[in-house]
Amino acid sequence: xxxxxxxxxxxxxxxxxxxxxxxxxxxxxxxxxxxxxxxxxxxxxxxxxxxxxxxx
Length: 56
Known about the structure:
The protein has one helix at 15-25; strands at 35-40, 45-51. The protein is an alpha+beta fold. The mean pLDDT is 84.
């Protein structure tokens, strides 16, 4: 499953900066996104998840 890892072993408070940096560096790619989610690992924990609206 395609994914983007923004960091490992980071504090939750660092997430907004990581997301801002990823958005600033984003370059368009052809793809269809169905869901976006934020996970914490070891053990796996879903912190946030959202289904995306269907495209045209």
